[in-house]
Specification:
Blueprint (H helix, E strand, L loop, with lengths): L1 H58 L8 E2 L7 H7 L3 H6 L1 H13 L3 H13 L5 H16 L11 H10 L9 H19 L3 H7 L7 E2 L24
Helix pairs in contact: 4-5, 5-6, 5-8
């Protein structure tokens, strides 16, 4: 009889602990569920935020996007007419060079004029070390296979440049520059004279926004961090 009473007494003493344990486990389950719910809610808010940003981007007026260009120009119709006399007159005029570059960007072929500009700057180099550094930069940017802005050159011209790039001279890119110049003169320049960009200038009409592609990289003076260059020639 005494043994039975002791057993039931022990059982009653354990019961509150079991209830406490059950409540603790149950509470942890609720807490875990609550955390998961918060995480899901946060993910939904993030997705909603991204959706709103995308909608705002598509609703953004074209004139405010970085891929567009509507540049005020000081060019008079008389000056623009002179550009139509020859390709050389177009490139020798600062505004003509800028306008032609803008046109080439609409055709996704700005690497041609940028290569030509780089060669013009290169030929002004005087310091031997600068000649080596600039030649290497031009070669890696425009000439070598799969270059970021590779220009269209025949195999022989590229081969000659490749063999001499370790000991370049101021004339290392003459053949390539001449080839690219001819391509632009015979092809791009003809279309430029018929483009809205040029016709608007000679007619004195306001410049229209021009849709441009975004490029991962472009050729600028910043490419030559340790190279001295004639800043006046860069656009």
């Amino acid at each position: 009889m005494e043994t039975s009473l002791v057993f039931f007494s022990q059982l009653n003493m354990c019961e509150p602990k079991e209830k406490a344990f059950f409540k603790l486990i149950h509470g942890l389950g609720k807490e875990e569920t609550s955390k998961e719910a918060k995480i899901r809610a946060k993910e939904k808010r993030n997705r909603l935020s991204l959706l709103v940003q995308k909608l705002e981007f598509h609703e953004e007026p074209p004139s405010s996007r970085s891929g567009n260009l509507a540049k005020e120009t000081r060019v008079t119709p008389e000056e623009a007419v002179i550009w139509g006399e020859s390709f050389d007159k177009l490139l020798s005029h600062k505004d003509g060079l800028e306008t032609f570059t803008r046109f080439l960007k609409t055709e996704f072929s700005e690497e041609n004029i940028e290569f030509w500009i780089a060669c013009e700057d290169f030929k002004k180099s005087e310091d031997p070390q600068q000649i080596i550094l600039k030649a290497k930069a031009i070669y890696e940017k425009f000439i070598q296979n799969d270059a970021p802005q590779e220009v269209n050159l025949d195999f022989h011209t590229k081969e000659v440049i490749t063999k001499s790039i370790t000991q370049p001279t101021l004339h290392s890119f003459d053949a390539a520059q001449s080839r690219v110049y001819q391509l632009m003169e015979q092809d791009s320049y003809t279309r430029f004279l018929k483009s809205d960009i040029y016709l608007d200038l000679i007619e004195g009409r306001p410049q229209r926004p021009t849709n441009l592609r975004r490029r991962s990289r472009s050729f600028t003076c910043a490419e030559f961090q340790d190279v001295k260059s004639d800043v006046a020639i860069w656009l």
